[in-house]
Write a structure and sequence with these properties.
315 residues; alpha+beta; Ribosomal Protein S5, domain 2; Alpha-Beta Plaits; four-stranded antiparallel sheet; 11 strands
């Protein structure tokens, strides 16, 4: 028997990480610059999230399972989770031993609808970054943040969780004070909506948009726990553009309003619509009604604010 010149040291144990999905409680959209729109948004992290398991010593495979496993999630290096890990390798290479990250298998338990405006792919990237940082013994927050932003504008928020204002492309974050638990019903759609298409339509509809802003009243309503004031001032500037592709979005919003939803809101660029309920019981009633509404695929109940990406199991 020959002894390998560089015997492999013990392979670290797998690490399991959870990351939340999100809703945009307010989404102000301004002009496009260098291909990106100026945003002023209020993100809230939701208790409807993804669980990733990073398994060292694998073959770089990506396994997608869970409720939304069948949807078109890439299994190659374009998957946001893999991209996030590869970016971290590049950022640390030469200074740290990153070999453990090179052959990771990644198992994604997909509980956030794909291409629904709830940041599922971004949550996978955030979870992958937290898990990968753990596997190399911890990484400076600034480096993790840089990798997050390189994958996508929502990833930085999903690392952090809670409720926060996002400016720039959504990556410049400041925390927002909120009171109590928010009970949401998320109505997913039977068909997807392309984010670039919705932004392109926004540009056509708004050739000279006002600078993106979060109204002060929205922040005050969140801090004071006043849902009716929130309903009066919170809005998503992409709603008209999304409705122009899918008129049923307006009908579903109206159905929720008729059922007493405090605030129907398009999530991101849609087509998922979030409905703020008055309490957990109201959320149940709303979910039953929305589930029977034309154009709604599923009515998912969830709450916010939820924590950002965090390890749930690992050495
Ligand atoms: P956002 O709200 O951040 O705009 P979204 O929730 O609308 O995003 P995602 O589910 O993140 O959309 O997916 C958008 C596209 O990204 C998918 O259609 C898919 O091609 C690609 N993608 C890459 N990696 C992933 C991933 N891990 N999970 C889901 N989609 C991914």
């Amino acid at each position: 028997m020959t002894t390998p010149l560089h015997p492999r040291t013990t392979i670290p144990a797998p690490v399991r990480v959870q990351a939340p999905g999100k809703i945009n409680i307010h989404l102000g959209v301004g002009a496009a610059n260098d291909g990106y729109h100026e945003l002023a948004t209020v993100f809230q992290a939701l208790n409807l999230g993804e669980t990733l398991t990073l398994i060292p010593g694998g073959t770089r495979s990506i396994i997608v399972q869970g409720r939304y496993a069948d949807a078109a999630v890439p299994h190659d290096e374009t998957n946001f989770a893999r991209r996030a890990v590869d970016l971290l390798i590049t950022a640390l290479e030469g200074e740290r031993d990153v070999d453990v990250l090179r052959d990771l298998d990644i198992v994604i338990d997909k509980q956030v609808p794909v291409a629904g405006g709830m940041g599922g792919g971004s949550a996978d990237a955030a979870a992958a970054l937290v898990g990968a940082a753990h596997l190399v013994g911890g990484v400076d927050d600034a480096i993790v943040h840089e990798c997050a932003v390189a994958v996508g504008a929502d990833v930085a928020f999903l690392l952090r969780g809670g409720t926060a204002i996002g400016q720039g492309r959504g990556e410049l974050l400041s925390p927002v004070l909120t009171r109590g638990t928010f009970h949401w019903v998320m109505a997913t759609s039977t068909s997807p909506l392309s984010t670039p298409d919705v932004y392109a339509r926004f540009d056509e509809l708004n050739p000279d948009p006002a600078p993106a802003a979060v109204p002060d009243q929205v922040l005050k309503a969140l801090a004071a726990g006043e849902p009716d004031t929130l309903a009066e001032f919170a809005a998503n500037d992409l709603t008209e553009a999304a409705v122009s592709f899918m008129p049923e979005i307006a009908e579903i919003m109206e159905a929720g309003r008729d059922a007493g939803a405090v605030l129907p809101l398009l999530s991101g660029s849609g087509p998922t619509i979030g409905f703020l309920a008055r309490d957990a019981h109201h959320a149940l009633d709303l979910a039953v009604l929305l589930q029977a509404t034309r154009g709604v695929n599923e009515a998912l109940r969830t709450t916010g604010p939820a924590p950002g990406a965090h390890i749930v199991d690992g050495d």
